[in-house]
């Protein structure tokens, strides 16, 4: 089930984010600016939770297993007065792989794989690069993940932009196009409560 309240956080920026490169399952660490994103989100969550009276024992801090998310989650944990070991990783929160696109910019993909690029533009939800995954794959994973959440804890979820687009789309009842167009900044915390999202 979906808990009454749920916090969603994108990992902080990496050098590849800043260079416009596809990351997928490549384990790229946070950049200095990315660590600053995570610190800011940790402060936001700490202030919000303190105002609401949440206790550490009420929380679950769930993260993609990729380093950029784990580091973000550990920084958030520190701001909440929790040890790094409090962070739980869940493979369902990993980004969809981009296969042989990983490490390339959009311009490089257009030049090297024009047919794949056109196929993606024609059906972005179901398209998967060679060796990679699709939004449809993410949807299946994120459905399993969200249905595994229980009312026994208040989840803070640290994951990737694609996963968040899918999860937000499911919760808000958006169509595929609207889900994929949703901007997911690195320096924001979204709170799902009482059937709608708001920034923390």
From TrEMBL:
One of its GO terms (molecular function) is phosphatase activity. Substrate binds at residues 10-17, 68. The active site is at residues 11, 95. Transmembrane segments: none annotated. It comes from the Bacteria. InterPro entries: His_Pase_superF_clade-1 (IPR013078), His_PPase_superfam (IPR029033), PGM_Phosphatase (IPR050275). Signal peptide: none annotated. Pfam families: His_Phos_1 (PF00300). This is Histidine phosphatase family protein. It comes from Aquibium carbonis. The lineage of its organism: Bacteria, Pseudomonadati, Pseudomonadota, Alphaproteobacteria, Hyphomicrobiales.
């Amino acid at each position: 089930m979906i808990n009454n309240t749920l916090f969603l956080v994108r990992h902080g920026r990496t050098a590849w984010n800043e260079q416009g490169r596809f990351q997928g399952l490549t384990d790229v660490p946070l950049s200095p600016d990315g660590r600053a994103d995570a610190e800011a989100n940790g402060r936001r969550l700490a202030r919000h939770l303190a105002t609401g009276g949440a206790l550490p024992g009420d929380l679950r801090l769930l993260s993609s297993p990729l380093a950029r998310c784990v580091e973000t989650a550990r920084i958030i944990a520190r701001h909440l007065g929790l040890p790094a070991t409090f962070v739980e990783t869940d493979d369902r929160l990993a980004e969809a792989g981009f296969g042989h696109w990983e490490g390339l910019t959009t311009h490089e993909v257009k030049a090297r794989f024009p047919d794949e690029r056109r196929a993606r533009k024609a059906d972005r939800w179901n398209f998967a690069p060679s060796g990679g995954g699709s939004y449809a794959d993410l949807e299946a994973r994120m459905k399993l993940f969200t249905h595994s959440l229980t009312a026994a804890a208040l989840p803070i979820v640290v994951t990737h932009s694609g996963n968040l687009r899918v999860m937000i789309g499911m919760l808000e009842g958006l169509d595929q196009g609207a889900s994929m167009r949703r901007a997911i900044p690195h320096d924001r915390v979204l709170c799902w409560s009482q059937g709608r999202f708001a920034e923390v």
